[in-house]
Specification:
80 residues, mainly alpha, 2 helices
Length: 80
């Protein structure tokens, strides 16, 4: 087995682990994203709040894809 095959196997294992963790702890991850969003919007100028919230939604979408639930609507992060 060559280097590329070993790397491919390791990445496959990592993806499976990430999927399992997302399925098991998806709600906690979404909560952490919300807390981080609130913290960042509190510490940065209001002009970047929309960008921060958009990034948070993309992060939640990525978690949903790992959970196997793409296109799940999320409630918007509360504005300050």
């Amino acid at each position: 087995m060559g280097f590329a095959d070993k790397a491919k196997d390791m990445l496959g294992d990592a993806k499976e682990t990430a999927e399992g963790l997302a399925k098991e702890h998806g709600d906690k991850i979404d909560g952490a994203i919300d807390k981080a969003t609130e913290f960042v919007t509190d510490k940065t100028p209001d002009s970047v709040d929309d960008k921060v919230r958009a990034a948070a939604e993309k992060a939640k979408d990525a978690v949903d894809q790992l959970e196997g639930e793409p296109d799940t609507p999320h409630p918007p992060s509360a504005p300050n």
